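Retro notes
What went well: the complex prediction finally ran end to end.
Inputs used:
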Amino acid sequence: MATNLVRLLEGSIRSNNAGVAQRTLRVFSSQQQQSEHSAEDDEEFRVLNLRTVKQQARRRVIKKEVVPPPRTTHMPVDQDWTAVWSGPRSFHPASVPLPLRQGYTERGAAAPSKYANAELMKIPNFLHLTPPAIRQQCEAIKKFCTPWPKGLESEATWKAIFPVEVVTTDYCHSLPTIRHPEARRVTITLKLSDLKFDAHAKDKFLRLVGDRYNQETGVLTFVADRCPTRKQNYDYALYLLTACYHESFITEPWEASKSEADMEVYLFERNKAKLSAEAILNWNANGEKQAPSATYADSVEKLINEGENEYNIAKYKEEVLKMLKIAN
Amino acid sequence: MFRKQFGNLSRVSTHLSRNVLAARVASREAEMSTNAAPAEAATAPPVVNEFRTGVGNPGEHSDVQIGKFYTIPMEEKKQIFSGGGLPKQYEQQIKTFTEACLMVRSPALELLNYIKRADLSKPVVRYVLYGDNGVGKTLSMAHVLHYGMLNDFLLVHVPWAPNWMKRPKESANSASQEGFIDLPFDAAAWLVHFKTQNSKLLERLQLKTSKEYVWSKRESTPAGSSLIELVEHGIARIKYASETTAALISELKQLATAGQCKVMVAIDGYNAFFHPITRIFSDNKQRVSPDRITLTQPFLDITNYDWTNGVCILSVDKIAMTEGYMESYLPRYLLGKEGFEHLDPFVPVHVGNYTEKEFTSYIKYYLDRHWISKTQPGFEEQLKFMSNMNPYTLMQLVRGL
């Protein structure tokens, strides 16, 4: 039916305005258009092309960047290395003018060169910390430093004058707030030998401080971080030290009830050893009492407190022989 | 098991061969005696060479005799050590060698020096022998005991105290003390030992008891009866042996303090008195600690410092302990806190392994006794390394040579 209709129209259109009619007709059917073309020029077989010319994918031509030769090839010998390698950075072969090699190979073969060498990139390097770089940085911060106080030249002197060491840490970081939670922590260290004690106070002090005292090094450590600011923590740590020290000199009434089983060290004075020694020395003696010598007491205490060994036993034997007047 | 049997066999065989030898020697001597005058072995002057000394009195021993052997006459040996006091294997060796030889060693000499020098009017001094296993603590003690016997000390000698705690013959509830355990047979055996050691001296001294001891309704030992009577009563009435021991020891303390006699206390394995683990069980199957044994009390009492005219030689030994308590041979460890407090102040005397000189001397002695017969070159060095110059190990090693 459609073809009939077209033929009918065709006659009239050809006569007056072919161009306009053709444009209106195109909407009806493609089949019709094809037949029209074949009618126009029959000499060439035309290819059906559904896409417009614009839409057709053009093959992209990959343009290769021109790789410049490594920077090391035109580095002057007297260049400023700190400008090349200013900060910590993983290894880059083209920036380091050194023939470095690293990595595992078969036996006899040379180690892989620095180019595309993951081994070299993995390890930390100190190329930014060359002696000239350090010198340069020291030079730069020198203007912020004050001279070292006179009279505190040696470590021994300043340790004697300032026995308490305060350690705090400042943090440099990128956050909306400049307050780092760890920055408030204050650590105070000092040697126990710098404090003056009597025997009772020392014992009590060590019990009070507990594991804040390191027995091997003899160092006391107070760490304060419970207050919000550093100043408060510092004050609190000093307060702890002061309070423990003064508390240790107070003798509570219940401390007198400490029995032999509670003793942490053997004391000659409190034990049967003293009674026996006195009884033997003052056998059948009237008048003034003889007391066992201090060296004997010391040897017994050492034997018990330090534990037995050949030396302590020999010392004890020597003292006993002296006390009993057997040796010579 | 096999090794043990083998050891026994070899021992038997050596005994046999030695007996055969001895028989041969005896027969030869008999032949000779028919021809010539009878040989007087007992009165012959003792042999003196580089490893033997003629000085038979321990009181005269000095540094010159260190490393040399001296012979204890058989009667004296029988008197002192018939109830124990020498290690079993050493006893066998004495039997095999047909002579009781002891080496003069520095720990014993040191002890003898102290004893000679000490003032007997002062409270008794406690000497504690200590040392590793098998170094000769018991034999050093034996040396000193010999000295004590020759110098009129009454010997209060416990050959091996742990025997009471570890393998008692019999245990019974004590009649006199509530909750205590008696070891009647062991106590009686000790009384017999005391009697054999001291009967001669007791007869000579004529010691009397100070008070009356009432054993039961019908039995009592009146005041003023001799100590021998007391001892014999204990031996005859085994039931009361433990109490008799306690009575005897308290009497000895009093008599010694009064100056009527000198007492030498020698207790081997003394630390057993302070070791809480024993093999004695009470009626309710509870382990009895040594302080609940009636026999312990008198011996702890006599090692106290509250008497004079005496000397205490004690030895502490790892073997006296039980498993788990044998880490160290040092006296404070073995005695424990309680034992140390009881003995303090005591004189520790260390007994060590052989010195070079003692070792060579011992090897020479073994060669002399034909105990070592295979002498390959360098066997001494080899023995030295294998035994680490430990006396007991050496004795064990040369058994097979």
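What we learned: Chain B has two domains: 1-41, 107-350.
What to try next: split runs per interface for comparison.
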